[in-house]
Amino acid sequence: MTDAPGFNAWHADVANSPACALIFQQALGLPPQVVSNSLLTGAGIAEVAAALQVAPGQILIDLACGRGGYGREVARRTDACLVGLDFSAVAVAIAAQGGPGSRARFCVGDFTGLGVRDHSAHAVMCIDAIQFSDPPLAALRECCRILASRSRLAVTAWEPCGPVQEGVPERLRQMNLARHLLEAGFEQIEVTEKPDWYAAERTLWEAALQADTSGDPALVSLQEEAAQALAAFDVKRRVLATATAPAQAA
């Protein structure tokens, strides 16, 4: 599922599936107000918020924001002004309706066509989605373009950690955030493995496989994804990558 229509259908289905939402909330330890459309844990949200170093009133871009839950929560914790961008019009429409946040707005945007002015953002987050850019380097260069001098980027993703099996999607086979971020122009790059996040993800996939999918297309999709993810679970690692945009000439 890498096209906008596929994601549109997924977001619409999940938005109408309380059972699916409960699996995500319980497995990932999410605060009750957070709408999840990805696999970041509650503890991970706190780490991303801290890594961004965004100040109250500054502009936070949530790239590939989905239904907006993670970006809203980071903005709530930092008091930043949130701009969420996603190529799924359905996700953006749901995000715009989802909960309090007068300084949050959501727009349709592509990884390499963000519609954001050069050096105008004070932080960028991208949760579990950078692999959908073709190639990831192009999206990271766009992030570097829009970030103000010495501002921060936080990306959560997966990388291969050994011989990669045929069943692993090509977009994950090619992930190397340390190299990609350096080539995109970032500085102070750190890529940290997060085994606790990955353990929570396994819990989520296993819970999905045990769920009763009767009449719930979101759970059917989640079970299909769970089977694929668990089949290749041991050849990937879960990471948080952080980096700083270079200083701009005065």
List the helices and strands and how they pair.
Blueprint: H1 4-15, H2 18-28, H3 42-52, E1 59-63, H4 69-78, E2 81-86, H5 89-97, E3 104-108, E4 121-127, H6 136-146, E5 147-160, H7 170-173, H8 177-184, E6 187-193, H9 195-210, H10 217-231, E7 236-244
Parallel strand pairs: 1-2, 1-4, 2-3, 4-5
Antiparallel strand pairs: 5-7, 6-7
Helix pairs in contact: 1-5, 2-9, 3-4, 6-8, 9-10
Q: Which structural class matches the secondary elements?
A: alpha/beta
Distance between the termini: 44 Å
Order of helices and strands: HHHEHEHEEHEHHEHHE
Can you tell me the number of structural domains? 1
Mean pLDDT: 90
CATH topology: Rossmann fold
Question: What oligomeric state do the depicted chains represent?
Answer: single chain
Which percent range describes the beta-strand content? 15-25%
- The residue fraction in helices comes out at 40-55%
> Looking at this structure, what is the CATH superfamily?
Vaccinia Virus protein VP39
**In the CATH hierarchy, what is the class?**
Alpha Beta
Total number of β-strand segments? 7
- Biggest beta sheet summary: 7 strands, mixed
Note the total helix count. Answer: 10
Low-confidence stretches: none
CATH architecture term: 3-Layer(aba) Sandwich
Output the strand order for the largest sheet. Answer: 3-2-1-4-5-7-6
